[in-house]
Fold this sequence. Notes:
The protein is of the alpha/beta class. Helix content is 42%, strand content 22%.
Amino acid sequence: MLLIDNLTKSFGGSPAVKSATIAVSEPAMIGIIGRSGAGKSTLLRMLNRLTDATSGAITFEGRDITNLRGSAKRQWQSQCAMIFQQFNLVPRMDVVSNVLHGTLNRRSTMATMFNLYPTDDIHRAIEILDRLGIAQHAPKRAEALSGGQQQRVAIARALMQDPKIILADEPIASLDPMNAQVVMQSLRRIHEEDGRMVIANLHTLDTARRYCDRVIGMRDGKIVFDGTPAQLTTGAARDIYGADDTFSEAATSTEIETLDAATVLIRQAETV
């Protein structure tokens, strides 16, 4: 279904992603973990074509999307929706209009300029908001909502595109634990109920283990782990986050599985 083949991205001669290869045969919920700067966000941006690859190829359902241009590129981006850490909503616009922005790729320039939407699209936007538990906030400005609610608005906007893939770049990094749980449960439910592929960059091992079918670990731009949550062992965590042998021997397997990247690095420093 999705094949990423030897994908590389360099900035000024420095590779951010190095020969990444991932094959996905069917819709799944995939978590990508790793330290800050490991190349996770760059990988997702290449998938969505927000960033062009330096080399390698991305194929989806037999179609090479690596070098798409113009309308073909926009069509792909409508099928491969992106959710960002900072929501990327229009703060002073009402919630339902923000959700309707998910239809921009298939609307005329004139309709976009005058903010004109078909009645069917408005009803569908409200239905999606209701599905995510925030329909009552539809007439409010986006800026009046909490961070967790705004992220659910961003998810609703992505669903308005009716995408085959949803990419989530650190979707819960700026949220408190309760809102983070609601957002991850929403993404998991979308995967299970709609059969959509969801690929999310995550900053905690525990989150990846709890919600994902498959976990990919990146370190210094390279994929160093690709397996099930059950295979995310102490040794695998050490490979992903670069913890040394002293740290690995001192920590139990359970501790490593539940520590986030920041805690791993702090404890590693404390053992030196």
